[in-house]
Specification:
7 strands, alpha/beta, globular
Length: 177
């Protein structure tokens, strides 16, 4: 390989990752914040909103959920970000809670470059005094030109609080690889 080709390959190897990071495609985010982290914790950041919208849309499409459903994005999300998410999710949702409507509540979003994970609690209309809440963990990937998509989902078959703890443990191992 001559020197000119080697120099072009080297320049491309250095410049391409810089362009990807500058464009905002690759991010590092924890919503909500974790103790001692250096990640972005802004729930209104574009990729955080997009990950939540893709995850919620996948859960709604997978069903079975009556339409419409109520969504709760990560705490601290502004009305503008809700509007962005609603346009990406579709007509099957309402932002504010309605009586008897099922609720999809985003508890956590982790983004590591082109891989993301979100924990969403699905609360179905149960009889008074009964809990029918269930944790669904979505595993997402980012592709150029198409954006975030759900690669797989996991519905936890245990109480939500236990499932959230287990999902956090799993994320510490799998998402950091």
């Amino acid at each position: 390989m001559n020197i000119l080709k080697l120099r072009n390959v080297t320049v491309a190897a250095v410049v391409l990752p810089m362009l990807v990071f500058a464009a905002g495609c690759a991010t590092y985010a924890n919503v909500p914040a974790q103790a001692g982290d250096v990640a972005s914790n802004n729930p209104d950041r574009g990729n955080v909103v997009n990950v939540q919208a893709a995850a919620l849309r996948a859960i709604i499409e997978a069903g079975p959920l009556p339409s419409p459903v109520t969504i709760r994005l990560a705490p601290g999300t502004t009305p503008d970000s809700y509007a962005q998410a609603l346009t990406r999710i579709g007509d099957a949702v309402v932002k504010h809670e309605g009586e008897g409507l099922p609720v999809l509540d985003v508890h956590r979003v982790l983004i590591r470059g082109w891989v993301a994970q979100s924990d969403i609690v699905r609360e179905a209309g149960a009889a008074p005094g009964e809990s029918s809440a269930q944790l669904i963990t979505t595993y997402l990937r980012w592709r150029p030109f198409t954006g975030w998509f759900v690669d797989r989902m996991r519905t936890w078959r245990m109480p939500v609080e236990e499932a959230l703890i287990q999902s956090r443990r799993e994320a510490e191992i799998s998402i950091s690889q």
